[in-house]
What does this fold into?
Amino acid sequence: MYNFGDIYGNGQIKAYLRSSIANNKINQAYIITGGEGCGKTLLANAFAKAILCETGEACGGCVSCKTFDTGNNPDVLYISPTVKTGKTGTISVDDIRDLVCAPLGVKPFLHRYKVFIIKDGDEMNSSAQNALLKALEEPPDYGFFLITAVNYASFLPTIISRAITLKIKPLPDSAVAAYLTEKAGFTESEAKTAAAFAQGSIGRAVTLKNDAEFSALMFFAEQIIAGRYASIVEVIAAAKEFETHRARIDDLFDLLCLIYRDIIIYKACGGDDKKIIWKQNLKFIKDIAAKTSAPELHKRFDAVIKTIEVISKNANFTMAVEVMLLDLA
Ligand SMILES: [Zn+2]
It folds into this structure.
């Protein structure tokens, strides 16, 4: 568990951290940033385990590694938005005082470092960040901080200046798909679709496998594209269904774009299905391509893109969706 070898891609970051450890040139604070599910926490854990390991290589066999893998290493403290308040979405100034500043005053029990892994550090408000800054400014030599975050822009410049930033890059679709088939039990077509969808994030792709709402979104997207919502009554009902998926609206629009893209490309390539991503429902793609003219497909695709734009500009959500559904029917 938790080895640099478990992290796909991002060879530069891994090489950099390995050499930092080998040459004993370790900064006391790092911000690990990148998209949802890209492996930030895995990298933080691999790094922490390696610097605490008695051999310096995350050997897996020493007391430090064994306790680390079971989550019982006494010199590793995990802080996340839910730890203390039980509420998702915030790390308060009290959390930082009680869970970082106070324990930082106590020397490590067994190891050279006392490691603080702050997950979703972008959920710290500015007073929490200022409290953390005090710890980062003059940490005892055993203090070591790893902060993960999607939203890098939320950090105060003073925090950023105290830390080394590691930016995890998205992986190519082919690498994500390879992982999904080799390690996560996806079929090849499931893997291709999930990889196209996850935009380089293995974590995001993996969660799609048993994601019931995602399955419902796929079905809904196909119904829309098939023109099932044609009458006013049906359009109003479908717009209500959009509303129920509001939290996943980006996924729904991504699906609509992805499937339209496939239909358009399939038609443009004269019926060659090699470039289709939505392989799990090839028949659907072929049916719609056969029934619909190329200009009409482009018109519908544009209607989806336009709707995404107007919604992003805070237009009335229901109205925008209704107009789009009428365009697509
Ligand atoms: Zn070890």
User: Anything to note?
Assistant: The radius of gyration is 24 Å. The CA atoms of residues 3 and 46 lie 5 Å apart.
